[in-house]
Amino acid sequence: MGFNCGIVGLPNVGKSTLFNALTQTIAAQAANFPFCTIEPNTGRVAVPDKRLDKLVELVHPKNVVPTQLEFVDIAGLVKGASKGEGLGNQFLANIREVDAIIHVLRCFENDNITHVEGSVDPIRDAEIVETELMIADLESLEKRFDQAQKKARGGDKEAGVNVNVMGPVIEALKQGKPARTAAPDASDKEACKAYKMLQLLTAKPVLYVCNVDEESAATGNVYSQKVFEKAKAENARAVIISAEIESEVAQLESEEEKKEFLASLGLEETGLAKIIREGYKLLGLETYFTAGPKEVRAWTFLKGSKAPQCAGIIHSDFEKGFIRAETIAYDDFVKYGGEQACKEAGKMRSEGKDYVVQDGDLLNFLFNV
Description:
By secondary structure, the protein is α/β, with parallel strands linked by helices. Helix content is 42%, strand content 19%. The chain is built from 14 helices and 12 strands. Helix 5 (157-174) packs across helix 6.
């Protein structure tokens, strides 16, 4: 099961520098001119999880596999992207393929790094990108809305659902609001399915990343404060990072060196860890574990998934022939010191097809095909 986050923003806000730090590669060329990233670069990164480290301590497996997220570094956008300006069409096509948006905003002054708009204003920058995405969504919907209305009048039930879903979204977009503000109620499964099929750019969840100077990495600054206020008003999320610091941390070899360097700047963890963790929350993801002498592994699943669905993440046969899931809560596994001790203490449960898997569960699936 793959989940990816697209890193977007105006040119020269630090997207590629951040991407390089995130993936600890130099795959994306970070240069001081617009459109230095032409093809979207992708990189997979491990999701930091102290629970996995603790399980490794207890089980001593031969192999450890953390769960991962994929990040996609997408070319910078400019005004008029929805009309094909700059690399607009390519930008929009690339962003349509990702599950969530990591929106990098420049929150630092630096005369040596050109700003495409001529000044630093993260709120304006955010609105430029959002407006282009909303324009693209509105044009896409208006073309389909008339056809759906005609089919609905002819008695097409599916078209009727689409009309009911598209109407409120079109109105929201005309008012300058993203599609996600007019999403159907989660309880209406049919409408939610139709909404998802629309593949709207502004339906995607967004995490604002305030790229600040090194001195502001621990506390933020006036620019990042404005972004956090915007995020709060939208019921969205935001984090503060310094892409330059992340680049320096990525070059250090040992974890001890990284910790010392971060501590000297008043930081407890990397921006990488914050972004990955928030990206994970943004997508509504949780983690379950499998643990044995051969391997301790973290598996990503959508919050609310039932046991057979989670079994299918390992292999489709596990879901098809699902019998039950032997389940131990993470806290119990740690408290009693392993699987056998949990069994003896009566802390291993046998769960069936309707069990909703909980974050941190240790699972062993029994199946028959």
